[in-house]
Design brief:
This protein is mostly helical and 199 residues long. It is 85% helix and 0% strand. The mean pLDDT is 79.
Length: 199
């Protein structure tokens, strides 16, 4: 009980601490909406930009893993650490070398992931029967599965724009989310400022 009240108090303090910074959240949201609009103007460029960021991240992470492997050279599993780092860095380098081919490969991986995720959700929904809401989980799984199958059927034509669409949708939803959060903080700040001070 004490831990719960302490966590609520710390959460309340954290929200109070950022209440005055509501404008930054709104500005961040507007910036993400603008970036989403720019990315939507050229989905192929947005896809390639996403792929390049993924490739660069993988290459840098692979290099860090290789360095980490040599720093623990005396420990068991050194070769596995080293091999994992080399594979990761190599995959990132291949993506950077040919981002167009990588966009086709990654879009197919996304489609396959949706199919598998749909099957798992359907199974999970039937598995928790007769708990309340199991039909909604099954319905969500069926929807995810169908979207995945449709995207797999449309591949490779979608290879150069699918990741761009996902980036645009993510930027737009994040943007509106930050704007809504900032406005909520502003209304909270104005509510507290209008309350009379207690002595």
């Amino acid at each position: 009980m004490t831990d719960m009240s302490n966590s609520k108090a710390s959460l309340g303090w954290a929200i109070h601490a950022i209440t005055g910074k509501w404008g930054w959240f709104v500005a961040l949201g507007v910036g993400e909406l603008i970036l989403g609009g720019v990315a939507s103007a050229n989905l192929m460029a947005a896809t390639l930009a996403s792929v390049l960021v993924i490739g660069a991240t993988m290459a840098v992470a692979g290099i860090f893993q290789i360095v980490q492997a040599f720093s623990v050279r005396g420990l068991r599993g050194f070769l596995l650490w080293l091999l994992a780092g080399i594979v990761y860095a190599a995959a990132g380098s291949i993506i950077l070398y040919d981002p167009v081919l990588a966009s086709f490969t990654l879009s197919l991986a996304v489609c396959a992931f949706l199919v598998v995720a749909g099957v798992i959700r359907i199974w999970a929904g039937f598995h928790i029967r007769p708990a309340a809401g199991w039909r909604w989980i099954v319905a969500a799984g069926v929807l995810t599965f169908c979207v995945g199958v449709m995207l797999v059927a449309a591949w490779p034509a979608i290879g150069l724009w699918l990741l761009g669409v996902m980036l645009v949708v993510d930027l737009i939803f994040q943007g509106w989310g930050f704007i809504a959060f900032g406005i909520a903080l502003k209304s909270r700040a104005s509510r507290h400022s209008s309350q009379p001070a207690t002595v």
